[in-house]
Design goal:
- With 386 residues, the protein is of the alpha/beta class.
- It contains twelve helices and twelve strands.
- The chain has two domains: 132 residues, Alpha-Beta Complex (Aspartate Aminotransferase, domain 1); 233 residues, 3-Layer(aba) Sandwich (Aspartate Aminotransferase, domain 2), CATH 3.40.640.10.
- Strands 2-8-7-6-5-3-4 form a seven-stranded mixed β-sheet, with helices on both faces. The chain has a three-stranded antiparallel β-sheet with strand order 9-12-11. A two-stranded parallel ribbon has the order 1-10.
- Helix 3 packs antiparallel against helix 9.
Amino acid sequence: MAREVAGRLKKIPPYLFADIEARVRAKRAEGLDIIDFGIGDPDIPTPKEIVEELRKQVKDPANHQYANSQGEMETRRAVAEWYMRRFGVDVDPEREVVITMGSKEGLVNMCRAFVNPGEKVLVPDPAYPVYAQGGTYLSEGVPERTPLLPRNGFLLDIDSLPTDGKMVFVNYPNNPTGAVASKEFLKRVVDWGRKSETIVCYDNAYSEITFDDYLAPSILEIGRDCIEFGSLSKTFNMTGYRIGFAVGDADLVAGLKRVKSQVDSGVPKFIQKAAIKALSEYECIERPPSVERNCEIYKGRRDALVAGLRDLGFKVTPPLGTFYLWFEVGGASMEFAKRLLEVGVVVTPGVGFGEYGEGYVRMALTQPVDRIEEALKRMKRVLLTA
């Protein structure tokens, strides 16, 4: 018997990255060598000191029991201490911190906690698809697309934002565009949120992946009546560990905790112990050696790919944050991506991030320089013969 899914699920298109993965699997099955710039999954190993801590902690039977759904107090305290060292923000680990299964889970459950059916959620466009799909639609909310335009440096046009939304997602350093925001811009966001009584959800997952002396701020440096989402995935190359955090206004954190208490039993304790070790690497505002090495590697790749793409005739601006390049391709983004896949180069079509992403593609800096150079050769071959 065929079973019909719920109406809320019917509203959601197939997850962009799942579709790309299926296409890539098919090409690999044909024997094609794939150079993948699609999903933002770091190829750099997790720092060995974190891995060693995980190995030690997983041997302790006490860490095999259920964790607290809001995160162990020791872990929440480590997050609070990190916020003080990194941003100079004093956080209460009891009331203002919750540990999440990566930032993705936290973003989705934030909508479940506060969005009622039919309420508007302001979603940037282009943006991480989870804001609209996993978050808004699955909470039966209505995503209100707010364009990020190149003429504004891909910053939200605060003056044109609707004031009847329940929540707004803001993300800088930005996925997919690589745009960054100043404290002055964040102050305008915070002031607008207060005036319009809109919940401001700040996705700061890429705060530590920055270049050329740019240092990303926390929105909590500006205002405490927001909620900020962070992740160890990109900072410490821990995507598979599935651990992040949400920090901010106690009432917002409390709502998120209530949802989590009903749907999960917390991040495994041994992974939380590894996260504590990772966060303790920060002694001050400056990045620790392992994170600094990550950024140096990504910067080298960024510069190599920017130079190669410019040689192919593309206008590319080196991003100050994230490990993505975002650039116009002069046509339909899906068709461009399909052409490159024929020669084994995977890029993410911009239309998958929203209507205003059409005409762009995103490339993740998750391949070493020699593979970048090989990809550029293949791109040159297919683009010049088009």
